[in-house]
Amino acid sequence: MPVRTAKQMKPTLKVTKSRTPNQSTSGVLRVNQSATNTRSVNSSVHRKSFTLAGDSKVLDKGSVQTHKQTVQVFDETGKDVTPQPLYQPEAGALQPKQSKIFTNHDTSGSTLSDFLSTAYQTTNASFAAPFTRSVFGSSSVSRSSQSTMESMNDEIEDPSSKKDISLSLSDVQVRREEIKEQIKEHMLDCMVDCYLTETETIWLLDMPALSVSMDSEEAEVVKGRNMAYQELCKNRLGNDKYMERPMQTFNGAPKAKEVQSDSISMVEKATMATHWDIYDSYVSDGGAGNAADGASPTKLDISTLHRVHSSRPLDRTMSGASAISTASTSSSRIDTEAFVVQGENESDPEDVLHSEKFLQDLLVMERAVLENIYQPKLAAYRQLPILPDPNREQKAGDERDGQDDVSLNPALERLWAFNCELTMGRNVSNMAWNKKNPDLLAVGYGQFDFKDQKSGLVCCWSLKNPTWPERIFHCESGVTALDFSTCSPSQLAVGMHDGSIAIYNVQSTEKTPVIDSSDCAHKHTGPVWQVRWVENEHGPGGEDKRETLISVSADGRISKWFLRKGLDGIDLMKLKRMRSVRKHLGVKERKIEALISRHASGLCFHFHNNDSNIYLVGTEDGLIHKCSCSYNEQFLGTYTAHIGPVYKITWSPLCPDVFLSCSADWTIQLWRQDLFTPILGFTSTHKAVHDIEWSPRWATVFGAVNEGRLEIWDLGSSILDPIIVSMARPGVKLTSLLFATQTDCVLVGDSGGQVSVYKLKNLNAGEGKEVNTLHDIIRSTLASQL
Amino acid sequence: MLEETLKRIQAHKGVIGTIVVNAEGIPIRTTLDSSTTVQYAGLLHQLTMKARSTVRDIDPQNDLTFLRIRSKKHEIMVAPDKEYLLIVIQNPSE
């Protein structure tokens, strides 16, 4: 559209007040803008506009112009200030808005300013016309991106307008656009129609053709001219009009000039982009960055590269990878560098020692070291073949001889002992395996006698470390009973000499029990001799497989404990002294007038394996009572044979009706549930038998510990003598016994604080037939008795 | 707790030396002489990096947790971490 120029200077140019432009400026401002600082624009704007104002001649004063009749401009008050085609006398009204426009107008940022600043530098500042051209050229760049700028584009690309557009025009045009934009900002969500129009053709270069077609109109003219020229050339030779004249140009003498620059130092830089390096940077970027986007397809490529070029040396694929993902490697490197810097800021390099991970690593390391030491023993325990150490010198004959000796006889091989300085001198009172982790053993240390009571100790040992326990719990009084729970395998119930029961959680490293029964009203008043977690199939609420903690104590009560707010117990049974039974034994009844207590002390109990209602209790009087949970007043039956306190009763795990009992009267008795007299009795020495246990694997094998020795009995081989006997170390008494469940090993605790592990070797009891064997024995014995 | 464990490890049968080095190669705890410590730390650091690189190249989500080198005379056990290196040298067949 034609641009009309006004001859007068536009008063709008004088307006230089502008707010601080943030990132957007109009075309005018951009001209003055330095490359980075937008705030300097203000002053330069002032300057510029002043110079422009001063240069009235050069400036083409703009006339207001409209391009499209549809364009309507409103100011804030809603007044229609659509510029009219002619020069407006209300220029004063337009001026203040103009400044605002300048500030708010957002054009594309730095590119425009850069372009304009270079334009500024290259062109004369005072020369406005080329300025304006460049201004408009650049503004076209910016505004073409905006939808409403097409009007301006039309303007700008018009070649005629390039010369004549004045600043004032630009002012006005800018303002118009700006107002439009202000409106737009309010309605950002509405649909904007973009009209794309083709601009007029811009001629950049015009090289007219030298040849003319024969058919064209000019052909005749051209031909004529050609002919005339040829004649001229012919006439040239002798003609006076043409003279030959030579000329010579002087060639300047060349001069060599040398330039020396600083040598460019080359530094070699190499990086190894490994598969995991790329993976790390990808992960650390969060998967959302350019590097990550670049890395993810390349990661796949690299993996395929790996597979394809697996035979080729790694370097080639690495270099290929590095070429692709230099960005990611550099970023990872920056990450590591930043991390190292952080590390240096920490004052103490020893902080590293106190981290969790370090403790964990120490634990693993200790186990690894111990594994090297104990490897043959642990292999024997786990029934793995013991491989000879290839580096050890072969002491020929020694080892082989050892093997031959024990090839046939059943024997015990001592593997190792759980012992540490904490436990030295303490009496092992009880041991229990963890139900879930068969490598975890809990050992309770406490004196049996009331005389020398020390504080108690519970240690949880792991097979992987026989030199130091995994958990150590100090208790106030001696520990006399222990059991691990089945339902929650990390709970350990501990019964103590002062009658209190505590439950520890072995998973945590806390030293205090989870719960304690010391506050309970019903707590035991005598030492708790046994605790056991019993699974009930008929739970109170009808739930199955609930567990209850049951304990027996020297105060004659068998209590069942619940976890309510504290540990609370109710009595299942009170053990009454039964005087009448003594008559049955034929012992003269002494007149007992004053009883110390009406209750007999209970020393042990065992619930039936299959029926959780029935259990047996052994008392200090030597009586074994069969009781039921349903009756808490009366016994179902009494087994009398022992004349000393019954230390242990145990049902056979493989034969459901048979149980063993051992007592301080040097005997072990074998009973069947329905007979109230023992079937078989075993005596070997004149020492109290402290502990017995059935072997979990063979039905005819059981182990017994009396004070001086460990005995393994196999009823299938002999019912008179134990088949294996192992003497205790001098000075200690053996106090407790435990069979290992998975392997054929036996653990023996003694009064010196050691728990020794023995392996049973060459036990000839075959599998599967012992139950029958046992029944046969029983039957034959009974038959012989009758 | 920490010191006891370190002492215990050192006291086990056959253990020749225990070294703890931090990420920069500075020995924090050692029971061997200085030159041996520095030698072990430097060499094992490189080997650990290589081992870790190998493990992670095969599967980047995997990582190296423990390294044991058994030689004719001893066994060197290394527990590596980003911040430290725990080295124990043991003669297992003593």
Automatic annotation (TrEMBL), chain B:
<keyword id="KW-0243">Dynein</keyword>
<dbReference type="GO" id="GO:0005874">
    <property type="term" value="C:microtubule"/>
</dbReference>
<protein>
    <recommendedName>
        <fullName>Dynein light chain roadblock</fullName>
    </recommendedName>
</protein>
<keyword id="KW-0505">Motor protein</keyword>
<dbReference type="Pfam" id="PF03259">
    <property type="entry name" value="Robl_LC7"/>
</dbReference>
<keyword id="KW-0206">Cytoskeleton</keyword>
<keyword id="KW-0813">Transport</keyword>
<dbReference type="GO" id="GO:0005868">
    <property type="term" value="C:cytoplasmic dynein complex"/>
</dbReference>
<keyword id="KW-0493">Microtubule</keyword>
<dbReference type="GO" id="GO:0005737">
    <property type="term" value="C:cytoplasm"/>
</dbReference>
<dbReference type="InterPro" id="IPR016561">
    <property type="entry name" value="DYNLRB1/2"/>
</dbReference>
<dbReference type="GO" id="GO:0045505">
    <property type="term" value="F:dynein intermediate chain binding"/>
</dbReference>
<keyword id="KW-0963">Cytoplasm</keyword>
<comment type="function">
    <text>Acts as one of several non-catalytic accessory components of the cytoplasmic dynein 1 complex that are thought to be involved in linking dynein to cargos and to adapter proteins that regulate dynein function. Cytoplasmic dynein 1 acts as a motor for the intracellular retrograde motility of vesicles and organelles along microtubules.</text>
</comment>
<dbReference type="InterPro" id="IPR004942">
    <property type="entry name" value="Roadblock/LAMTOR2_dom"/>
</dbReference>
<feature type="domain" description="Roadblock/LAMTOR2">
    <location>
        <begin position="2"/>
        <end position="90"/>
    </location>
</feature>
<dbReference type="GO" id="GO:0007018">
    <property type="term" value="P:microtubule-based movement"/>
</dbReference>
<comment type="similarity">
    <text>Belongs to the GAMAD family.</text>
</comment>
